[in-house]
Design brief:
Shape: globular
Radius of gyration: 15 Å
Low-confidence stretches: none
Strand order of the largest sheet: 2-6-3-5-4-7-1-8-9
Largest sheet: 9 strands, mixed
Number of helices: 2
Order of helices and strands: EEEHEEEEHEE
Number of strands: 9
Helix content: under 10%
Mean pLDDT: 95
Structural class: mainly beta
Amino acid sequence: MIIKLMKSKIHRATVTGADLNYEGSIALDEALIEAAGFVIGEAVHVWNLSNGERFETYVIVAPRNSGEVRLNGAASRLVHPGDLVIVVSFCWLEPSEVEKHSPKVVFVDEKNRCVKVTYPRLEKTA
């Protein structure tokens, strides 16, 4: 058995653009990609706090320190510039690895600059 857990997320980023005519993906500031530990081409979930939309896409790189969080292709119809989103990646772990796993959470300011990174431990449930 393997278990799907949150690997990392960028919490409450502000959408900076939406481009219907670009090949589908989410373009993220290279500094945010590194902070979150995302990999170029990695599948991520995007949860739009502004309208409740939830969808999956993949990561492409935007210029470092640009603050860019741009949704492209079909996903561009699910966001508007200024929307707040959470971008999340997951990993699959063996049960023996779960206890040692801590997800990474990247907090950003209103310009999508990393202000804090945390590694909360997953809490056990009864």
